[in-house]
Amino acid sequence: MEHPAVAQKLRPIAIENSRTWLIHPLLPLDLFRVPPATQRLSEIHVPTLLIVGERDQPDIQNIVGLLKTGIAGVPKVVVPGVGHMVNMERAEDFNRIVLDFLSTR
Fold it and tell me: Which residues touch 10 (CB under 8 Å, ≥6 apart)?
C-alpha cells in the first residue's frame, strides 16, 4: 500500500475478513455452482461501474478485465497510483467517479 495510515487500518480488517470467508458454511456450495458466475456475466443488465487501482494485485486486475469483457457496456476506471482500496486511498477521487457515474443514470 502506498499510504501507511490506510495500511494500518486495513490490516486487521483483511485478517478478520479472510477468517470469516474461510469458515463460511455456504462457501463450498458456491464453488460448484453450475454454470459458474464467470459464465453468467452477460446476465447482468443493471448499471455497473468498475473501479480499480492502478497498483492493485495482478489477480484483481485480471478479474476486473474479465468483468469488463463479460458485462456489456460496463465502464472501467483505473485510478492511478493506488492499490486495492481506492475508496480509502483516494476518497475524493473515488467519490467523484461514483457520483459522476450515478448522475448519468
Answer: 1, 85, 88
Domains of the chain: 4-103 (3.40.50.1820)
Task: Give the C-alpha separation, 91 to 97, whole Å.
Answer: 10
Retrieve residue 92's grid coordinates. Answer: 475524493
In this predicted structure, what is the pLDDT of residue 60?
A: 93
Task: Return the exposure string of 44-61: e unless at least 16 CB atoms fall within 10 Å of the residue's CB, then b.
Answer: eeeebeebbbebbeeeee
Three-state secondary-structure class, residue 79: strand
pTM over 0.85: no
Contact 94, 79 (CB under 8 A): yes
Per-residue pLDDT at 100 exceeds 80:
yes
At position 79, the amino acid (one-letter code) is V
Whether the per-residue pLDDT at 8 is higher than 70: the answer is yes
